[in-house]
Amino acid sequence: MSGSVSAVSSNGTYSFTKPNRQSITLLAGLGVEGDVHAGVTVKHRFRMRKDPSRPNLRQVHLLHEELFTEVREAGFEVAAGQLGENVTTRGIDLLGLPVGTLLRLGDEAVVEVTGLRNPCAQIDTFRKGLMKQVVGRDADGRAHFRAGIMSVVLSGGTVRPGDAITVVLPDGPHRPLEIV
Predict the structure, then answer these.
(1) For 60, which DSSP code?
(2) Could you tell me which InterPro entries the record lists for this protein (predicted)?
């Protein structure tokens, strides 16, 4: 399984959206160089209030570009970086990957998938009604989160739009993604 990077984004200050960049540098064990969410321990403001010593399982946020087409059909215009992701992907079913999947981004960088992004109320502040598009319900009524996945950086490197993404699934049995 493979795909590509369609955009990269980062922001050094807390803001819901992240500006697109020509490249980002991933740092092993930390995240995106210069990004507010980079660090060994949790950097998400809500999670820091609860326990700032927890490990940062949300170093790099990846989101599938295909989501933009889906929400556009429902009347919402969303572009790369606007939902706070660091890496926008094309051609990979991110939400179907199991925990522990390795993603090689470009020539050097490798991230390990840790879980799902928990969509927050800021999504509706950004575009009123968008939350219903990124949090659906399955046939049994369980929430289905579609706002991307989170990962940690195993090997650093530069990531650019157009870079290939190679998927390496972990040995089974596979664990489905849960919110981290």
Answers:
(1) E
(2) MoCF_Sase_C, MOSC_domain, Pyrv_Knase-like_insert_dom_sf
How far apart, in whole angstroms, are the C-alpha atoms of residue 63 and residue 80?
9
Which CATH superfamily includes the segment(s) 2-168? PK beta-barrel domain-like (2.40.33.20)
Question: Which residue, chain included where needed, has tokens 């927050």?
Answer: 120
Helix or strand holding residue 5 (H, E)? strand 2-9
For residue 9 the two structure tokens come to: 């984004």
46, two tokens? 């809500």
Alpha helices in 28-89 (DSSP H): 45-50, 66-73
Q: Which of 99, 117, 108 is nearest to 58 (CA)?
A: 117
Sign of the dihedral defined by the CA atoms of residues 135, 74, 8, 102, in that order: positive
What is the DSSP-derived secondary structure letter of residue 175?
A: P
Identify the segments of the chain with pLDDT beneath 70.
Answer: 45, 48
What span, in angstroms and rounded, lies between the C-alpha atoms of 131 and 136? Answer: 9
Q: Closest by alpha carbon to 153, among 35, 52, 51?
A: 35
Tokens of 172: 């089974």
List pLDDT tens digits, range 149-165. Answer: 999 999 999 999 999 99
Rounded Cα gap, residues 149 and 146, in angstroms: 8
Helix, strand, coil abundance in the chain, percent, nearest 5: 15, 35, 50
Q: What is the pTM of this model?
A: 0.95
